[in-house]
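Hallway conversation turned thread

IA: we were arguing at lunch whether anyone had actually written out Mobile element protein end to end. Turns out nobody had. So, for the record, here is the sequence (271 residues) and right after it the structure tokens. Reply here if something looks off.
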Amino acid sequence: MPVNDHPLADFRSHPGDALDDLLTDHVASLMAAGAVKLKAAAQDGMRVRASEGAASFRREEKLKACLEVAREQVSRLKAPVDDDPVGETARKQAAQRRAAEEREARIEAALARLPERAAIKQGQGKDPKEARASTTDADATVMKMGDGGFRPAFNFQYATDIESQVIIGVEVVTAGSDQGQRSPMVEQVSERCGQTPESWRVDGGYPGMGNSTRWLGRPPSMRPCRRLKTRQSTFTKRRQRTARRWLNGGNVWEAMRPRRSTRIARRLSNG
């Protein structure tokens, strides 16, 4: 029989501690074999689109109204199952009641997350009453994606051993920015592996929020990755060369000519 999507999703999301222990055992085995040496580690974040739609986000007033409707639906579906607990109709009603109870739990989780979202809004200078949370997944947050649009998403943080390219740390955060995510990952890797990498490389989006002083033991050296410089066009380089020659007293018109024309002119002038 095919696997139901609901138990499969529960299996992939609920046993977080077991999956974390599995990653620890995996990294420990590679360290014991000498494959992972933890001389240098790199960290980066990746925004992953959530399955929730933007229309599922509600403000506090609307969430409370949805919660009342969900509770009424749960109480209405409980009575028929108690009166007639056998038959196909009873199983169908039990499934409907379970779905209603799950929706009620999701709305309660959304209301519980509103204070956090309101504090973020207030820190950004916006009205805290405009904070919203999703009725289908309270952990989802509207983030700015790579194409410039805003969608519900999660921020996946990965830390890898640079030499072996093995993942040594994983974290899923609800913040849309990478600021402040460096210290928690360093602490996770230090606790998981029993040692801190000698160097920790991140891009320019990580420094900030005073997180550079929170380390376990000796802080690793922070070397941000170099940004790739755009290649200058030949015309731009020629203009800079012309300006330098003009400042040094050279002939501006001759400096602006192509090299081949300049060489031909010199040969003609020399006879």
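OS: looked through it. Residues 16 and 22 are 10 Å apart (CA to CA).
IA: good, adding that to the notes. The first strand starts at residue 40 and ends at 49.
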